[in-house]
């Protein structure tokens, strides 16, 4: 009975999954026995060292600033574009071919070209991050806007709501649950593209530390940095999910698969 | 006064052919009249309502309201839909206030009017509920209050009680009737319930199946205020119901 009670603790499965991951890492590292693949203990031992260095913070801040800029640009441009596409067949017909062409290109592959145009500084990195987050944002905003109940719009029109106010006060809130789903995907994309852009144009940032450590064969540091990035991704997603729930608590159906599973189990 | 003249509407189908939904409707609805539009499913009765609302354009013909041609939606014509169409991110109060805010009604007056309307539809105490927390009947009450709030001269009701259970429907029919008998707005009421139409209306427009054409316009000469229990025993009410049902069944393939 006691074991059962322990197993149903809400925090247990995630802890177990982390423990499982670390165990696999440890086992794989022992099996391979290479210095380029240290066990987790070594990586965690390198962490305090890493955080004693001020460089780590400045790099982390530089990375996060670029990521945030790319995301905000994406929100400011891609979301309105997606919303308008969702409401206008003509705009969709115009933009769809362009998006279909851009879609399969890995955004990091554009990095060298963009570097040629705008250099290796912040601008090129922010630009690729923006490109990376834009597609999921456009796609989900489009889906959200398309699914808006026509009669909500009609009701608002009958009250005298003009075209601009309709987008802002009816279509955007209606599509919000779907838009925020796109934001969640966009957030993960931003993190990925952030690292790859810093890998290609090394100057500053977390990706820069990671790959410099790799060049210098400081493998403990490389893995410590990977741990930091994983924790960062996890924390960002956690914070974002809280925000998303707060913004869409009113929604008739929850779009969160985990919440849906919980409902089904209850 | 609503003047509908030679109104037709065809929709383009997926195959690219034209499907006629409404054909050649000509009708005048005097101000203050409660007109029901009856017909089999697919006869375009909702389409007719949407055209009067200015939500969709006719293929030919015209609609005039108070002499002015309808070119789009306006606050003089307030819709109430079967699916309620409430703003799910707004509270009950927020929904009812929305139109007043758009119209620039001063805050204090808006608050007062919202409170009065919620009292009228028996939702006092539910001001801060969200639509997902309400039953179907309550949602439709909010929707009716939201539309009445900005005081349209004409109500366009599209099977407003169609999604409700029989008991709730009956209660809301009674409430609508008492609200209407107080301020006598012009009402276009789309339904496929014959008894509902006779119970509520001054006149009933019967349409044929697709495309919807005018079959008959029947004046319902029953005294007001109407009380359901009395009407059910009223010989003339019974005859209206039987006559219209017969009319709708004749020549209908089911």
Please explain how this structure is put together:
The complex is a heterodimer of chains A (266) and B (254). In chain A, 81% of the residues lie in helices and 0% in strands. The model of chain A is unreliable at 260-266 (pLDDT under 50). Chain A has helices at 2-7, 12-32, 40-52, 54-87, 89-102, 111-118, 122-146, 150-158, 163-200, 206-215, 219-247, 257-265. By secondary structure, chain A is mainly alpha-helical. Chain A starts with a helix and ends with a helix. In chain B, the strands form two sheets. A six-stranded mixed β-sheet of chain B has the order 6-7-8-3-9-10, with helices on both faces. In chain B, strands 2-1-4-5 form a four-stranded antiparallel β-sheet, with helices on one face. With 254 residues, chain B is of the alpha/beta class. Chain B is built from eight helices and ten strands. Chain B has helices spanning 45-53, 92-102, 107-120, 136-149, 166-183, 194-200, 228-233, 235-249, and strands spanning 2-12, 18-29, 34-38, 60-65, 68-69, 77-81, 154-158, 186-191, 203-207, 214-219. The chains are: A mainly alpha (266), B alpha/beta (254). Chains A and B meet through helix 8 and helix 9 of A and strand 6 and helix 2 of B.
């Amino acid at each position: 009975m006691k074991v059962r009670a322990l197993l149903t603790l809400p925090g247990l499965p995630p802890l177990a999954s982390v423990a499982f991951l670390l165990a696999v890492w440890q086992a794989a590292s022992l099996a391979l026995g290479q210095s380029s693949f240290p066990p987790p203990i070594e990586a965690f031992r390198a962490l305090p060292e890493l955080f004693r260095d001020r460089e780590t913070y400045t790099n982390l801040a530089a990375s996060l600033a670029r990521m945030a800029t790319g995301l905000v640009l994406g929100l400011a441009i891609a979301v309105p574009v997606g919303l308008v596409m969702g409401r206008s067949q003509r705009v969709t017909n115009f933009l769809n071919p362009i998006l279909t062409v851009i879609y399969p290109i890995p955004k990091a592959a554009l990095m060298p070209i963009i570097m040629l145009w705008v250099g290796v500084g912040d601008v090129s990195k922010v630009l690729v991050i923006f490109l990376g987050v834009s597609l999921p944002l456009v796609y989900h905003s489009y889906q959200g806007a398309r699914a808006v109940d026509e009669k909500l719009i009609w009701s608002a029109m009958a009250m005298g709501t003009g075209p601009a106010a309709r987008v802002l006060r009816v279509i955007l809130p209606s599509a919000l649950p779907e838009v925020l789903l796109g934001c969640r995907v966009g957030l993960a994309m931003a993190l990925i593209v952030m690292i790859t852009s810093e890998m290609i144009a090394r100057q500053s940032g977390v990706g820069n530390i990671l790959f410099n450590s790799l060049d210098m064969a400081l493998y403990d540091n490389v893995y410590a940095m990977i741990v930091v990035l994983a924790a960062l991704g996890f924390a960002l997603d956690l914070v974002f999910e809280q925000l998303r729930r707060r913004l869409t608590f009113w929604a008739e159906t929850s779009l969160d698969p985990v919440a849906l599973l919980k409902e089904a189990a209850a | 006064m609503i003047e509908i003249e030679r109104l037709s509407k065809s929709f383009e189908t997926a195959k690219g052919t034209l499907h006629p939904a409404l054909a050649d409707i000509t009708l005048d609805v005097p101000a203050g009249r409660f007109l029901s539009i009856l017909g089999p499913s697919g006869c375009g009765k909702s389409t007719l309502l949407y055209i009067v609302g200015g939500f969709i354009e006719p293929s030919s013909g015209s609609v005039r309201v108070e002499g002015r041609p309808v070119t789009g939606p306006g606050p003089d014509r307030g819709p109430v839909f079967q699916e309620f169409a409430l703003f799910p991110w707004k509270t009950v109060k927020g929904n009812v206030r929305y139109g007043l805010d758009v119209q620039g009604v001063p805050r204090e007056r808006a608050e007062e009017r919202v409170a009065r309307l919620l009292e009228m539809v028996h939702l006092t105490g539910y001001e801060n509920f969200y639509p997902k927390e309400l039953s179907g009947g309550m949602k439709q009450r909010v929707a009716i209050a939201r539309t009445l709030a900005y005081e349209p001269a004409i109500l366009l009701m599209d099977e407003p009680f169609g999604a409700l259970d029989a008991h709730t429907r009956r209660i809301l029919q009674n409430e609508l009737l008492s609200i209407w008998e107080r301020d006598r707005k012009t009402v276009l009421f789309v339904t496929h319930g014959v008894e509902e139409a006779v119970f509520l209306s001054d006149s009933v427009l019967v349409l044929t199946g697709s495309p919807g054409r005018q079959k008959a316009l029947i004046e319902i000469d029953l005294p007001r205020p109407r009380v359901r229990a009395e009407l059910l025993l009223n010989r003339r009410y019974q005859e209206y119901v039987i006559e219209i049902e017969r009319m709708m069944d004749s020549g209908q393939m089911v």
